[in-house]
Amino acid sequence: MSAATETRVSASRESTRLIARRPGARRAIRREAVFGYLMIGLAVAFVTVFTLIPILVSLGLSFFSWDVITPPQFVGIKNFTRLFSDGQVLSSFGVTIVLAIGIVVLQIALGLLLAVLVNTRKHKWTKALFRTTFYLPLLASTAAVSIFMGYLFDAKFGLINYYLNEIGLPSVPWLVNPTTAQITMILIVVWQQVGFTFVLFVAGLTSVPTDVLEAAAIDGAGAWRTLFRIKIPLISPTILFATVVAMINAMQLFDQPFIMTKGGPGTATTTATIAMYQTGFQNLQFGYASAIAILLLVIILIITGIQFLAARKLVFYQ
Amino acid sequence: MTGSFGPTMDRRTLFKFGGAGLAITGLASLAACSSTSGGGTNSSATLKMLYFGEQKAATTIQKALQPQIKKIDKNATLEITAINGTDWNDFIAKVLTQIAAGAAPDLVSVATEGLQQMASKQMIVPLDDYVTKDMSSLKSYFGDVHPALVESMMYQGHLYELTDSYNAGSMFYSTDLYKNAGLSTPPAAWTMDEFHNNAEKLAALGSKTNSFDWVVRLWGSWTSFLYANDGNLLTEGKYSGGDWLWNKAYADNPQAKGRHGGWKWGDPTANSKAAVEALEYVIEMQKANLSPSPDVGGGGTLQGLFASGRIGMTIGGGFWAGGLYNAGMKNGSFDVQTFPTWKSNKSLFGAGGYGIFNTSKNKDLAWEVVKMLVQPETFDLVYPGNVTTPARKSLMTAERYKTTGPEHWSVFWDQLDGSVPISAPPYYQALATSLNQRTTQAISSGDAKAALDGMQSDLEKAQANS
User: Does the reported pTM lie above 0.80?
Assistant: First the structure.
């Protein structure tokens, strides 16, 4: 703790002691403390009920065999040993990682590009227009977007192939070929999610101190040099935050592939969450599905940890 | 509010309160999760039923049926909850989730797809005792319903549902496109060669016409070709028993000969020669531009495309009559024929009916409602506008199809004689998942054998785990 901070803390304690000596002040402080605990308690209770308990129950269930109808049976680590020899489920993790990398790289790069371009606009109304336009897809229901995109990218009757044919180009098997289905899925998710990273980057770029930019300009730095040497390093904490959140979201990809391809063709777009859903809710193996969920949680934690380790060297804090 | 915790409340006390609260929440959620008997706390006169479809339709049916319910018991009410989904596997998954949440209903309207799964888990009860008790009043019902449909509602010798509807996989065709292609009405016992020739002639109409289209699902996809090729995804067999029903309800009916205690789906045969040939056939159709790449799901899109004149032929059941009419097609612009014969004239069907949940506290009342639901006068209240095929032969009349068509509506009933129900074992959900994945894999790779080898392995695992 720095000397200045220590001085501030000790001043604060001193003032609390002085206030406490006033009549009725102790009760007021206690009331305030209880109110504070209650407020924190609400958040803690929310996270506990909707996140912690489900994770713990899921962890517990992963050691059981349970079909919902009959009572659960303890099976030890059988679900985990089965998981590591189940080619289909392991392949779904591979699909998830491939899709997540594609989504995150494109989402960050495109979000940054759009933010930089919008940031160069002089008029406020054009900035507002672009911000709204790029953010709008994020507000749309993912299910509705997926159904709509399914029609748009339909190989035989879709609008996109119709126009491709009209200009003399052949139809593209968007969702019926394993490779194109994965690429299409990445493009659709990025189209909808890029507004999130875009808004973060716009806010980050706006907060870059103008005196630093002016100093760079005086030193003769051009637009590219300013971008890569000044702006991007200064917003690197925002980039780290956006990358971590985007990666966590992408690793849990479910709606778009489930609605558009049901995980197909074959298992080309069967993500870990789809495999989990099919195992639990369709095959009624909730214990095994919980084991898949726990593995996914661990993988997400590892990836996030790696991102934070990498950030030590790559992220610049002011 | 804050005073209620007392002036000495500290962090430790707060954690105690929080801990107790969390423990209660945790126990409550665990109790909800592990409730195996589920629900069962319905008021004595309110019956809850699950229905596959839109809530708007469910509410309409609920209102239409209330007067009938009041005739059974003036204090009784029927509450129908709709469950949406693209196909039966979605419906069944959501029903199971609801039961796991402790909200088990009294009645369920479920098709062949879910019957064995629910029966094997003892989620629905055998109706044997009820049927035996009321046999005299049910004689007219059984006399009106094809025994193949009744047998499809049996499992291990017991009857689990009374059927009110079914759909046999027949071949619908556009009469307009047939005329344009210079084709005449397909004959009753047409063959695969004739079907293929017709498809080639339809293809000559231009690239905007698809000779044939289909969707990936257990009912009426490439599986129809598999059945016609005298194959199946699972070994066909029958459970013993059921004489209690056949001897009393179908004693003089020759169609009941050889009927037993329900279909017993044995070892997987997904990579049999017949299956590979059938799947290769639809892949070749696609390669020859006679058929586009199929969608996965229930077939709603397919009806729209057929109605817009872009599809020449497709596999459909009685529900297509109302579907196409509602999509804007006029009676006469489409017709139906039995599925073409390949190595056999075997075709498939799925039936719908009503079962009673094991957890229901009002089973006797539920049984009375089930009987009411299969009465002839109830059918059009539940299924207005030919959106399925009535299980009762007396309801299959020219008058019924006068508005919607098709002209050869009698095909729906006639086809039942050579029909086998879709192979929906207790592990139907896993089968449906594998069928979807492996079919799309075969379509995209063009390798039917490899995909079906994978499916065989999937089904063997699912069978072992079931």
Answer: yes
